[in-house]
Design goal:
With about 70 residues, the chain is mainly α. About 45% of the residues lie in helices and about 0% in strands. It has one helix at about 40-74. The longest helix is centred in the last third of the chain and has 34 residues, at about 40-74. The radius of gyration is 20 Å and the shape is elongated.
Amino acid sequence: MRWPATTPGHLAGNPGLAADAGLLYRTPAQGSVDGNTVDMDAERAAFADNAVHYEFNLTRLSQQIKGLLSVIQG
């Protein structure tokens, strides 16, 4: 079964179709002699950005749950 995507950039729901989804990769700024194109500074920056977003969303969700509990408990 193929699930509808809400945005054209989303992957298809069927794992077999993931190869046709047009995955995007970072263009390496500079390759190394051994062929490694991973930019650790870019990866660390992306990780820090994701960590900040995760903490923000976790805090926001926790506050919403606490608000709902206070309404339920009176």
